[in-house]
Specification:
Blueprint (H helix, E strand, L loop, with lengths): L9 E2 L11 E2 L5 H9 L6 E2 L1 H13 L8 H14 L6 E9 L2 H13 L9 E9 L2 E10 L2 E3 L6 E2 L4 E8 L4 E8 L6 E4 L6 E7 L5 E11 L2 E12 L19 H14 L6 E2 L1 H17 L12 H7 L6 E8 L3 H10 L1 H7 L6 E7 L2 E8 L23
Parallel strand pairs: 1-4, 3-5, 8-14, 15-17
Antiparallel strand pairs: 2-5, 4-6, 5-6, 7-9, 9-12, 10-11, 10-13, 13-14, 16-18, 17-18
Amino acid sequence: MSRWACGLILASLVALAPVGGQAAAPDGPPLVVGLLAGHGWGTPVRTAALDTVAAGLVARVGGAVSPDPDTAAAHLRVLLHGAQVGDAVVYPFTLRHGDDGALRRGLLGLVAGLDRRRPPTHYGLARGRDGDAQVTAVVLVHRGVVFSPPLPATAAPGAVLRLSGALRRGYFRPRVVVAPPHGAIRERPAWTEARRVEVNVYLDAGPGVYGVEVLADSVDGPVVLVNHRVYAGVAPPDRPTVVLRPPGADRAEDLWAQVQAARAAHGLAPLRAHATLVRIAADHAADLARAGRLAHRSADSGTLNTRLRAYGVAATLSAENLAQAPDARAALAAFRDSPGHARNLALPQLTHGGAARVGDIWVLVMAALPSAPRSSAPRPTSRPRSPGRLQ
């Protein structure tokens, strides 16, 4: 994900094991809450909206023994939008099990995959049956800003939305990025001295889908707290749309080609491949893969600007997009679904770039560099990290 500064998107299915059967009324939460509290995660708040999402997972994703992950993820997006949940960090989990002992063992896998920097603050739970088996779905979210009222799923064209909410500790300098259906993506500051997000969003570009994203700074650099869509004068989807994945689109070169195509679609000049930017992207991707999380700031190499300086790259503008995705198409889709990351892709000043993949971590580094070509990749002026260090 990324930037000129950009944020962090982490909305992926974690340990999703689809199940069948109809959703039943959820039972009490002691198992989930006790497990999280016992592992130092605190006590998240249960909400009706996330209960609805969990019930939808039990009902919609059920029946398939080995479900297509793209279809499951698309169902999750529709359910989250329908429940007016726009949090960028979502940990969903479904499990078919025989008793609560098996459920506890399964939930341990979910707990192991959580990010300590972004712990769950809210959750929903639903249970059902599939023949003799029980089915449990748990949806955890990390809510960096609590809006009151929640952001709407639909609105009238020309409406003015008031975004008002309390900012969680650990985040500062929030701003709102809006991607209208027509016209340029725009950003506005949204902070107050009372640590609240307060800003108006104008749906003034006619009917269509407006992307509304809340970014904030943190110790890990810029992060995405909310990534929401508002359907103005058009009907929101009630079922997922899945694009078939072409075979072999799993290399950094595939992402690079798709980024070039995306820029060409905006009438922009192609980026020139830059060996040092590829190295910077690859080093940061390896760092993130070792740490098991997405962040623009590294304890070893610092920020993107630090990494550029360490390798002697003098950029007048830089941007870094990060994604956790199974293939290049999904990584690019994550960028496009985020107004801030989409704007990075379409910055006309950028001239060079490099992409890398390590596991399911994708890193795209772009920069505006002097036009004079370099004869070879410069040697780093300092060692940006210890290759074996885990952070």
